[in-house]
Amino acid sequence: MAVQSVPDARTSTPQQLQSVRATLRSPRRLKTEALAGLVVALALIPEAIAFSVIAGVDPRIGLFASFVMAVTISFVGGRPAMISAATGAVALVIAPLMRSHGLDHLIAAVILAGVFQILLAVLGVTRLMRFIPRSVMVGFVNALALLVFMAQLPELIGVPWMVYPLVAVGLVIVVGLPRMTTAVPSPLVAIVALTLFAVLAGVDVPTVHDKGQLPESLPSLFIPNVPLTWETFQVIAPFSLSMALVGLLESLMTAKLVDDITDTRSNKTRESWGQGVANIVTGFFGGMGGCAVIGQTMINVKGSGARSRVSTFLAGVFLLVLVVTLGDVVGLIPMAALVAVMIFVSAITFDWHSIAPRTLGRMPRSETAVMLITVAVVSVTHNLAIGVGAGVLAAMALFARRVAHFATVERTVVELNGENVATYTVDGELFFASSNDLYTQFEYALDAGPDISRVIVDLHASHLWDASTIAVLDAVTEKYRRHGREVELIGLNEASVRMRERLAGKLN
């Protein structure tokens, strides 16, 4: 009887490493996934508490959200090894609703946001990802790294001097240990080592317990006490839609980043409705909702080597166990240890190659500008979704400006059947940016003189893309008509003919 081999990280393909079944059959892979989940759980605790403070809710709301999101997305999500939990972007969106209407309306908004995300997935919102340029993606990654780093600065300002050597030692462990062994994730070693030192040496430094009270019971079913009326919908719908869009954008961008790191492809449509399902479940357990978290995802995938849904599931389970049953122990972890881990995450996340002088010298200035705009907007707003939106708009504007110069008009006069014919050859793609100048490139008065009998516009080398171009051509033919000349358009391809037949004469 043939013996089945157990998949190993050194011999398996990237796709095999994502398999839950293969992971459970391999002790080596299972250990990696379990330890990765533990490190992620430890890193999630202070951030979930901090995001709860931003949203204006009890820390338990953020911690329960992180637990439920992680466990649920491990089953319904489309990107293996990606971590979803309470996030700062979502907290910023829902904080005004919490202040104005309270917790019940906030939870109702989280549930409705999940419904919106499912609807957006059904409508094919994931297809919009292909319109996000590489320069925006690079800006997203770099901005993300900067946000992770800036989030650690409050933990390094106005603190006891002992925090700084602890952070330095933590960084040495996180960076140096993998050069000697990868049997245990270096972030976990750093957290355990610094915690033991702080406790045994009696060092007085800020700890996780200083961030807020940890829950002492399991999350329970929560039904928001809001009237099911149109007025309630009008109140929560804007917040829900904003949360749905922000959450999907961050999740899909993070999934795309992990795809690149792991050399695998993920199902973005499934990830979209999976995020919706996770937020609905989170809402019914009293959580503040969330989306993919890039920092913890990088710890999981890049720092700890996790590749499957097992690590995501265990991150949620470990989080709940740690805060409910081992809350007193977790509370002793010095924030310096977690700061060291997150600084390491920001360093490995940043695309250093993108700012190298040689790279900047080769890249088109417009590409570099889009990347810098994305980074700048995210850094100012602390909102990745707004930054990505600004980057995409900048990329579109710069692209349209560049392409607009590709359309040219050349005038020639030839004799046909004893008549002088003015022929204008249009070369290039005609759309709103390039066709606006088209109107001014014809010699109307000269062509109306006695030397010219006919005017022909040759469009063999061009294509009509939008109504703006049809309107411009209508304006050109109308101006020639006022000068007593009829214009003959030739060379239109089939698609351009159909568009012109549908719109010509109906726009001006």
How many strands, which pairing sense, and closed or not: the largest β-sheet?
4 strands, mixed
Strand order of the largest sheet: 3-4-5-6
Shape from CA axes?
elongated
Number of strands: 6
- SSE order, one letter for each helix or strand: HHHHEHHHHHHHEHHHHHHHEEHHEHEH
Give the C-alpha Rg.
29 Å
Strand content: 5-15%
Give the proportion of residues in helices: 55-70%
Q: Could you tell me how far the N terminus lies from the C terminus, measured between alpha carbons in angstroms?
A: 80 Å
Indicate the mean pLDDT.
Answer: 86
Q: What oligomeric arrangement do these chains adopt?
A: single chain
Alpha-beta content class: alpha/beta
Task: Explain what this protein looks like in three dimensions.
The chain is an alpha/beta fold. It has 22 helices and six strands. The chain has a four-stranded mixed beta sheet. β5, α21 and β6 form a beta-alpha-beta unit. α5 packs across α6. The chain is elongated. The N terminus is likely disordered.
Features:
two-stranded antiparallel sheet, 508 residues, alpha/beta, elongated, 22 helices, disordered N terminus, 61% helix, 6 strands, four-stranded mixed beta sheet
Please write out the topology.
Elements: H1 14-17, H2 20-25, H3 27-55, H4 59-76, E1 84-85, H5 88-101, H6 103-122, H7 134-150, H8 163-176, H9 186-201, H10 230-262, H11 268-284, E2 291-292, H12 294-303, H13 309-324, H14 327-330, H15 335-349, H16 357-362, H17 365-381, H18 384-404, E3 408-416, E4 419-430, H19 432-435, H20 444-447, E5 454-464, H21 467-482, E6 487-490, H22 494-503
Parallel strand pairs: 4-5, 5-6
Antiparallel strand pairs: 1-2, 3-4
Helix pairs in contact: 3-4, 3-5, 3-12, 3-13, 4-11, 4-13, 5-6, 5-10, 6-10, 6-11, 7-15, 7-17, 7-18, 8-9, 8-15, 9-15, 10-11, 10-12, 12-15, 17-18
